[in-house]
Amino acid sequence: MNLNLKGKSVIVTASSKGLGKATALEFAKEGAHVMISSRDEQELKKTVEEIQNESGNDQVDYAVCDVTKPDQIKQLVQKAVNRNGTVDVLINNAGGPPPGQFEQFSDGDWQNAFELNLLSFIRTIREVLPYMKQQNSGRIINFASSSIKQTLDNLLLSNTFRAGIVGLAKGLSQELAPHNILINTLGPGRIGTDRLAQLDQSRADQLGVSSEEVKEQTEATIPIGRYGTPDEFAKVAVFLGSGANTYVTGQSLVVDGGLVKAL
Fold it and tell me: Would I find Metal-binding among this entry's keywords (predicted)?
């Protein structure tokens, strides 16, 4: 299958580690020109070098970007355009909000989660759309969570705003289809990242057990029997963001080893 990604301009936000980094690497392996971003410049420099070495692709660069800062989003997109001429693919990603239950959260907590996990996606899409519309082509993938299909215990902030991402993408898919811009939502299940390790530790602290026990208990509920790997998730993202995807838009898909039982 020809993914038609060689020379394509790709932005991946929150990509110095975890799912964002794995996705940036897979795009680089396909010959794309990749712009990664996060708040930590030292981590970004290291990640660029790692991706270049592993992929053999030197067309990887970075921009420091806190996705809750609209000016920094503008600068990120402009740097990608200055370097690569346009934006063909946008991968929207952001760190997850803190775990907890309703009565624990203040207005500030809700506002922070909104800005990080929904408004940042809206702003980044707004910045790339003029370029995608001008060339009558584009792919947008919004990373969310398996909570887009089935809510997760003790993750009320995430449950709320991840659902908003699905509504955003579904509505936009109707508006953008005439411009050959396809937009989809991709939710990771239990994928082995630092974020998952933090959630397992939080759950372990609640239960008074070890994080390893929490992991073993969770793996027993996954039909495939293990946590997924970041590259397994990233390969799905790359297909949805590639030229091989010509007819999938407005969809929400989970990559979870069969864990979620909802239709």
Answer: no
What global pTM score does this model have?
A: 0.96
* Amino acid 206: pLDDT: 85
CA distances from 127 to 51, 57, 121, 219 (A): 25, 26, 10, 40
Query: Per the domain annotation, does 99 fall within a domain?
Result: yes
Q: Which residues constitute the domain of residue 91? A: 9-192+230-254
Burial class (CB in 10 A: 0-12, 13-18, 19+), 248: middle
Tell me: the pLDDT tens digits for 205-216?
888 999 899 999
Q: What is the CATH number of the domain that holds 16?
A: 3.40.50.720
Residues 20 and 82 placed together within one structural domain of the fold: yes
